[in-house]
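Side project, low priority. Logging it here so it doesn't get lost.
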Amino acid sequence: MSDSDRAKRAAGEAAAALVEDGMRLGYGTGSTTAFALEALGRRVREEGLRVVGVATSFAAERLAHAHGLPLATLADLGLDRLATGTPALDLALDGADEVDGAFNLIKGRGAAHTREKVVASLAARFVVLIDPSKEVERLGTKMPVPVEVLPMAEPAVARALRGLGAEPVLRMGQAKDGPVVTDQGLWLLDARFPEGVGDAVTLDRALHAIPGVLEHGLFVGLATDVLVGEADGTVRHRTRG
């Protein structure tokens, strides 16, 4: 196992340890969260832990099934709580491509950021699992901001992104001809900002205002905890506020 995988495993296992009996969970997507789901499945088998979760992608759904984790939909779990203003989920676990000092994130390298944002926004705690390479001083210095768009609107959205100072590139499939298609049946524009993301709050609003954009990979003000796994198995637990 590589140092990176050891760090991811440490973060994933620490995240699984936060789960308590009876919790309603959000199951994130990606390599780091996969370690959390593995550890959580082990707790379900060995401790009799009772949990139920909402998957953020088809991939997360398959992993949850593989590890024996019960699944539900937001309609199953959330309607009674949402009616009273209570968070639908107790805890959401997910990875990130970049995390800054203000707990803002870039997500979406796995093309699941739209469902991930929905789930994160409905959780009382949104715990982000990363290795140290994902910590940055300024968002966008390593990763582009994924923007999920209607296929017919792609040229117009790309033009709008250029107006915001980005260099948009349509994400293409690696083992198929044509663009990557999300779980929603849409396309992705990866918007790279040469100087990085300045004001994440302002950019978040600007991206949402572009017609044809379903969602984007900036997560602003959602994360409550960040677990940073290290190759030696230790974990730094950062909490917001």
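Brief comment: The chain has a mean pLDDT of 94.
Revisit when time allows.
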